[in-house]
């Protein structure tokens, strides 16, 4: 089974029916021509003279992009959200402030903790000289030392809590939509999510291969040995200019879907790709030698299989069954049915009928125009 689905049968039947109708109309017109009228000339068609090529063999599947790292930005302290400090969707750097939570209660807590820490420190230093003189018990000094340690830890926690009221970016990347608005009460628990940051360079592309595609590979699964390259095809059909590499290959086959999960990595320093895009991945699995590339529009699907129309002997239309492989860009890879030098007709297919004469010309060339008839030379003047 080919990795690319063939056109739908209903569309093909319509095309074949239209070809038959066109042939009938042409035949009818030729039968109803007035006697003695000028004969209808051969139809101009564009032909591609094919030659065998060596092309990479590949497997092509749907895929979706995702950020290489998707980091949640969460509040570490509770309070009222006072201000959002960034523009949603912009690129930020690690450490850049993103949100401001009300600081007032944390400033008060810090002042209290600082005063308490200073008090316990003074008390510990006072008792230190007394314990050296053995004027107090060891227990009193130990209690004062412990109280000072607790007060210093409380001071450090108060400093951290105040600093956490300014929520900063943990990593560099592109910001997402803010999950909270100014004036919302922020909690430090499960509802602490404020936004997310996506690192899109490099960008990852996630996809899976099914049974039919895996069967084309040695061992029935993707390995570093049977994949020589990875290409990404954008929605408009163009190939992404940078090649990628596989950075994850599942070691098992999903028993429910019968697929192997894979992930590729691509350079995206210009941010041409965004997380969440649907694209196509092409895995290069080797090379095919002696195949032909034919435009997709030149291959007609019939109930008997795929055919192309040739400008055959005597420049007459000759149908030829072919064996198509996968798509390669805008072309079919033809595995069998053609030989070197065949002239494949690539336009006006709907107007053709087998055996009809055609006037072939190469791509980009203008159809041949019959040379104008030469005027007869005037008879010489009669000598008197």
**Could you tell me the strand content as a percent range?**
35-45%
Overall tally of structural domains: 4
**Could you give a short account of the major beta sheet?**
10 strands, antiparallel
CATH class of the largest domain: Mainly Beta
Total beta strands? 20
Written account of the structure:
- This protein is of the alpha+beta class and 384 residues long.
- It folds into four domains: 9-19 and 42-57 and 289-361, conserved putative lor/sdh protein from methanococcus maripaludis s2 fold (Beta Barrel), CATH 2.40.420; 58-68 and 198-286, Efflux pump adaptor protein, beta barrel domain (Elongation Factor Tu (Ef-tu), domain 3, Beta Barrel); 76-101 and 167-191, OB fold (Dihydrolipoamide Acetyltransferase, E2P) (Beta Barrel), CATH 2.40.50; 103-164, Helix hairpin bin (Helix Hairpins), CATH 1.10.287.
- 21% of the residues lie in helices and 35% in strands.
- It contains four helices and 20 strands.
- α2 (104-132) runs antiparallel to α3 (138-163).
- The protein is elongated, with a radius of gyration of 39 Å.
Quickly describe the structure.
This protein has 384 residues and is an alpha+beta fold.
Which key phrases capture this entry?
conserved putative lor/sdh protein from methanococcus maripaludis s2 fold; OB fold (Dihydrolipoamide Acetyltransferase, E2P); 20 strands; Elongation Factor Tu (Ef-tu), domain 3; alpha+beta; elongated; 384 residues; 4-stranded antiparallel β-sheet; 21% helix
How are the secondary structure elements laid out?
Elements: H1 9-31, E1 43-49, E2 53-74, E3 79-84, E4 91-92, E5 97-101, H2 104-132, H3 138-163, E6 166-168, E7 173-175, E8 185-186, E9 193-209, H4 211-214, E10 229-233, E11 245-249, E12 260-266, E13 278-295, E14 300-302, E15 305-311, E16 317-321, E17 323-328, E18 331-336, E19 343-345, E20 358-361
Parallel strand pairs: 1-20
Antiparallel strand pairs: 1-19, 2-9, 2-13, 3-5, 3-8, 4-7, 5-6, 7-9, 9-12, 10-13, 11-12, 13-18, 14-15, 15-16, 17-18
